[in-house]
């Protein structure tokens, strides 16, 4: 199961991402390999008319879809006490094909230390993404609440994603930055419960003028806070 977390900045700012109102729209492909570029197209999210919840469409018709970095940590130093993550290679392979089919430039990095993970994402954030529509990162590892394991220890997830803030990575400003995290977030087990759908709450999505530095992030976790994340050792997640 994927648990999506969206957040909204208070004050004089645009809504960052609100549940159900993020649409990633692929650019149209011509007969050749290059993407059509619309004249006078807005560089950022475009508000369209909806009765109650406006939709913000990101422009996706850039020359490239963007870079996708997959960090696949399977083996860990003995001092960490972490077991081998059997099945993760199948996940990494499936994700590689998935993002490649979507048009991303995909790289896979296996058994990274905390410093290596930081270095990979820092260098990626310093690249020129002007001709890219978005950026994606997949973290496959052990984890705890707000933490992810490198092969040699833990590092805060926020320290990894912070490299792509609007004030640090200007060429991804107003572009989607997607982070998919397959890792535990605690030790609780979710037994599940059957229930009817609840009512849809109203969402305050009035347009604002100022964009927060952590706008346009999407974090997709494989579990909710405090709980285990499941992985099939033979078939992957």
From TrEMBL:
<dbReference type="InterPro" id="IPR002138">
    <property type="entry name" value="Pept_C14_p10"/>
</dbReference>
<dbReference type="InterPro" id="IPR001309">
    <property type="entry name" value="Pept_C14_p20"/>
</dbReference>
<dbReference type="GO" id="GO:0004197">
    <property type="term" value="F:cysteine-type endopeptidase activity"/>
</dbReference>
<dbReference type="InterPro" id="IPR002398">
    <property type="entry name" value="Pept_C14"/>
</dbReference>
<dbReference type="InterPro" id="IPR033139">
    <property type="entry name" value="Caspase_cys_AS"/>
</dbReference>
<dbReference type="Pfam" id="PF00656">
    <property type="entry name" value="Peptidase_C14"/>
</dbReference>
<keyword id="KW-0645">Protease</keyword>
<keyword id="KW-0788">Thiol protease</keyword>
<feature type="domain" description="Caspase family p20">
    <location>
        <begin position="64"/>
        <end position="188"/>
    </location>
</feature>
<keyword id="KW-0865">Zymogen</keyword>
<feature type="domain" description="Caspase family p10">
    <location>
        <begin position="207"/>
        <end position="237"/>
    </location>
</feature>
<dbReference type="InterPro" id="IPR029030">
    <property type="entry name" value="Caspase-like_dom_sf"/>
</dbReference>
<protein>
    <submittedName>
        <fullName>Caspase 7</fullName>
    </submittedName>
</protein>
<keyword id="KW-0378">Hydrolase</keyword>
<keyword id="KW-0053">Apoptosis</keyword>
<dbReference type="InterPro" id="IPR011600">
    <property type="entry name" value="Pept_C14_caspase"/>
</dbReference>
<dbReference type="InterPro" id="IPR016129">
    <property type="entry name" value="Caspase_his_AS"/>
</dbReference>
<comment type="similarity">
    <text>Belongs to the peptidase C14A family.</text>
</comment>
<dbReference type="GO" id="GO:0006508">
    <property type="term" value="P:proteolysis"/>
</dbReference>
<dbReference type="InterPro" id="IPR015917">
    <property type="entry name" value="Pept_C14A"/>
</dbReference>
<dbReference type="GO" id="GO:0006915">
    <property type="term" value="P:apoptotic process"/>
</dbReference>
């Amino acid at each position: 199961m994927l648990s999506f977390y969206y957040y909204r900045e208070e004050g004089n700012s645009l809504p960052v991402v609100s549940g159900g109102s993020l649409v990633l729209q692929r650019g149209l492909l011509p007969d050749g390999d290059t993407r059509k570029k619309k004249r006078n197209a807005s560089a950022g999210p475009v508000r369209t008319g909806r009765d109650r919840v406006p939709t913000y469409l990101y422009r996706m018709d850039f020359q490239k879809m963007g870079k996708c970095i997959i960090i696949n940590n399977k083996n860990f130093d003995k001092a960490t006490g972490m077991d081998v993550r059997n099945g993760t290679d199948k996940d990494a392979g499936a994700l590689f094909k998935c993002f490649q089919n979507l048009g991303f430039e995909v790289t896979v990095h296996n058994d990274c230390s905390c410093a290596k993970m930081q270095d990979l994402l820092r260098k990626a954030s310093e690249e020129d993404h002007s001709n890219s529509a978005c950026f994606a990162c997949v973290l496959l590892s052990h984890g705890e609440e707000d933490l992810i394991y490198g092969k040699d220890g833990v590092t805060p997830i926020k320290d990894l994603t912070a490299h792509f803030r609007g004030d640090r990575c200007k060429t991804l400003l107003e572009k989607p930055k997607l982070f998919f995290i397959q890792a535990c977030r605690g030790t609780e087990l979710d037994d599940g419960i059957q229930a009817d759908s609840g009512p849809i709450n109203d969402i305050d999505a009035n347009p604002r003028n100022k964009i927060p530095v952590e706008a346009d992030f999407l974090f997709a976790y494989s579990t909710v806070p405090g709980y285990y994340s499941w992985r099939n050792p033979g078939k992957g997640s």
